[in-house]
Amino acid sequence: MVRAMLEDYRAGLTIDRRHEEDDRAAGTRIRCPALILWSLRDDLEDLYGNPVKIWRQWAPDVRGHGIDSGHHVAEEAPRAVASSLADFFAGRSG
């Protein structure tokens, strides 16, 4: 698991970044509804701002909210994540 996490970080700094730049240049957009969840006890918002606002640059239909957890949201708050996903797929998130 640790290796997979590190490889994800590595990709985010290399090939994923290049793909993002290519997509931006091409005007690529996400056409389906998107759910964005993040940790409220991490520094994501302090570093980058509101994640929903950021993702709206990529997709017109973005929903989401912070979850009271640390960095590992799914492991630390599984019920909140599951509830958010269930609401999203049932069309109840807004």
Automatic annotation (TrEMBL):
Family matches, as Gene3D superfamilies: alpha/beta hydrolase
**InterPro entries per record:** AB_hydrolase_fold
Organism's domain of life?
Bacteria
Listed name of the protein: Hydrolase
Origin organism of this chain? Streptomyces canarius
